[in-house]
């Protein structure tokens, strides 16, 4: 039997106040910021690196919140699926600027309130991951 190999994408759930930071991708969807795991890199290292590169944020990883196999139609390397790992991250500082032109093309970053998420063009599993960790985030702010 041939082994099933898929790319791994690591995402950061970053709350600021009562809002969450999201990225608009090349498919015109809102998603969690993050990116692909590099060879030899641990997922927690990936999310810290990606949030620094994309948002200019220094974060501390709190814990893994959610894992989901996501099939992206019309994708070169993700049409058979990509494993998306979502981590709750604590924002430590804002040290840089947003990455407007990234590896996957143009992107946009914005903060949204939780009440705004249902109206967004966003895969449902991201919404579920965000709701799963809202209580955890409130706990870490104490």
What does this protein look like?
With 142 residues, the protein is α+β, with helices and mostly antiparallel strands. The protein has a single domain, classed as Nucleoside Triphosphate Pyrophosphohydrolase, CATH 3.90.79. Helix content is 21%, strand content 40%. The protein has 2 helices and 9 strands; from the N terminus they run ββββαβββββα. The strands form 2 sheets. Strands 1, 2, 3, 4, 5, 6 and 9 form a 7-stranded mixed beta sheet that branches. Strands 7-8 form a two-stranded antiparallel ribbon. Strand 2 and strand 3 form a beta hairpin. The N and C termini lie far apart (50 Å).
Summarize it.
The protein has a single domain, classed as Nucleoside Triphosphate Pyrophosphohydrolase (Alpha-Beta Complex), CATH 3.90.79. Helices cover about 20% and strands about 40% of the residues. It has 2 helices and 9 strands.
Give me the secondary-structure topology.
Layout: E1 8-16, E2 19-24, E3 30-31, E4 34-36, H1 43-55, E5 57-70, E6 82-94, E7 101-102, E8 105-106, E9 108-113, H2 124-140
Parallel strand pairs: 1-6
Antiparallel strand pairs: 1-2, 1-4, 2-3, 2-9, 5-6, 7-8
The figure for the number of domains is 1
The level-1 CATH class: Alpha Beta
Measured distance between first and last alpha carbons: 50 Å
Question: Would you list the SSEs in sequence order as H and E?
Answer: EEEEHEEEEEH
Average the pLDDT over all residues and give the rounded result.
86
Q: Please bin the fraction of helical residues.
A: 10-25%
CATH homolog superfamily? Nucleoside Triphosphate Pyrophosphohydrolase
Structural class: alpha+beta
What is the approximate shape?
Answer: globular
Q: What CATH architecture would you give?
A: Alpha-Beta Complex
- Catalogue the unreliable spans: none
Over all CA atoms, what is the radius of gyration? 15 Å
Record field, number of beta strands: 9
Give the number of helices.
2
What is the fold named in CATH at topology level? Nucleoside Triphosphate Pyrophosphohydrolase
> Per DSSP, what share of the residues sits in E-state strands of 2 or more residues?
35-45%
Largest sheet: 7 strands, mixed
């Amino acid at each position: 039997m041939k082994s099933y190999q898929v790319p791994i994408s690591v995402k950061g759930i970053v709350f600021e106040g009562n809002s969450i930071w999201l990225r608009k991708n090349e498919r015109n969807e809102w998603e969690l910021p993050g990116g692909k795991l590099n060879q030899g890199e641990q997922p927690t290292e990936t999310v810290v690196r990606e949030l620094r590169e994309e948002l200019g944020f220094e974060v501390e990883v709190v814990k893994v919140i959610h894992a989901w196999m996501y099939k992206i139609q019309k994708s070169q390397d993700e049409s058979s699926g990509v494993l998306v790992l979502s981590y709750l991250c604590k924002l430590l500082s804002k040290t840089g600027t947003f990455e407007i032109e990234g590896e996957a093309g143009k992107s946009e970053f914005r903060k949204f309130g939780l009440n705004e998420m249902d109206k967004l063009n966003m895969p449902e599993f991201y919404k579920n991951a965000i709701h799963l960790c809202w209580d955890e985030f409130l706990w870490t702010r104490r």
